[in-house]
Amino acid sequence: MSGAHTPSSRIATPAQHPPAPSRTGAILAASAAALMVAALYNTHRARKAEREHPPGGRFITVDGVRLHYFEKGEGPPVVLIHGNAVVAEDFLISGLFDRLAVRHRVIAFDRPGYGYSERPRGVLWTAAQQADLLWRACGRLRIDRPVIAAHSWGTLVALEMALTRPDGVAGLVLLAGYYAATMRYDVPLFALPAVPIIGDVLRYTLSPLIGAALLPMDFKAVFGPHPVPERFLRHFPSAFLIRPSQIRAESQDAVTMMPAAAALRDRLPRLRRPVVIMAGTGDHIVDHESHAVWLHHRIPGSELRVLPGVGHMIHYAALGQVAEAIGRLAGTAAAAPSQAPARRVMADGLSPA
Predict the structure, then answer these.
(1) Is 62 within 8 Å of 133 (Cβ atoms)?
(2) Among 14, 83, 106, 347, which residue has the least CB neighbours within 10 Å?
(3) Is 65 within 8 Å of 133 (Cβ atoms)?
(4) What is the enclosing helix (H) or strand (E) of 80?
(5) 9 assigned to some structural domain
(6) Is the dihedral of CA 19, 22, 26, 31 positive or negative?
(7) Is 287 helix (H, G, I), strand (E, B) or coil?
């Protein structure tokens, strides 16, 4: 039986092949690779934007936060505070900064997280928190009783500054601001990049790409009904708005906007400094009746200037009127707090009944 074979010896062993990858795994791997490429591209683009547009102002460090600001001129001080999705340089491009600097000491801050200013993590950068930081910066720069002029989201910071230190403010000029805590349906669109972890991923991958595609439409909306000025298109560093670092600031400010307005509501009647509220009837970003008129009725002695046909970017469309209002308050910095009845003034100078 030496030539016999056992049954097991005649059974062939099948060839071993690795399991085929699943379609889900392939999709996840491709998605991860695409996100990585997007993150690298967006980081490169942000650094390129900063190389091509280096800081044009000065720096000051306050409580460990490095702030970038522009300063020019001599005379009564004026502090300019910008809104959301923009930088302090917007005031230079509009011409307001240089016009005011002829007779005033003008300071325009990049708010925390915007332009070249830092926005440290671990702090909830509400309007009140930003107001406190800017007051400390003003103290370091020896800015005494300035007129504070603010645009859009920045008006929340200006109001907080005036309410927390009323004797430190000569007056306020508020441009196209959001004041009443009304519902805004665009806030959820901006909220995701503010969410921890998920937001970090989005800010470095999808959000800059989507933001870049939407920028032309956004500019058209904020300047409407007027066309976007050529000088803005030439000189504004639009790539700064879609840097991952600034997207975080823009998203957080969008999320905290309604709570910030709500926190101001009951304190507004206490404001006794001169206040000029300016708004355009053509503003498609912030409705002037729901906000400017609303605020006017809550601040004793305030002056409301309604500009027919003017949109959200008042400091471009009505540069002369904005500069005049700021100069008027700066020229009466030593005057007593306003006790006059609130009044509404149209752009033609008439006071409607």
Answers:
(1) yes
(2) 14
(3) yes
(4) strand 77-81
(5) no
(6) negative
(7) coil
**Looking at the domain assignment, is residue 19 inside a domain?**
no
Domain residues for the domain of 207 are 43-346
pTM: 0.86
Determine the Cα–Cα distance for residues 167 and 43; give it in Å rounded to an integer.
Answer: 44
| CATH code, 275 | 3.40.50.1820
Instruction: For 146-196, write each residue's pLDDT tens digit.
Output: 999 999 999 999 999 999 999 999 999 999 999 999 887 777 777 778 888
Total domains present in the chain:
1
Q: Can you list the alpha helix ranges (DSSP code H) found in the chain?
A: 23-52, 89-94, 96-101, 127-140, 154-164, 187-191, 198-204, 206-223, 230-235, 244-264, 294-296, 314-317, 319-331
- On whether residue 23 sits in a domain, the answer given is no
Let me know: does 120 contact 65? Beta carbons within 8 Å: yes
Residue 151 to residue 164: CA distance in whole angstroms: 19
Look at residue 24 and tell me if it is in a domain: no
Separation of alpha carbons 114 and 251, rounded Å: 12
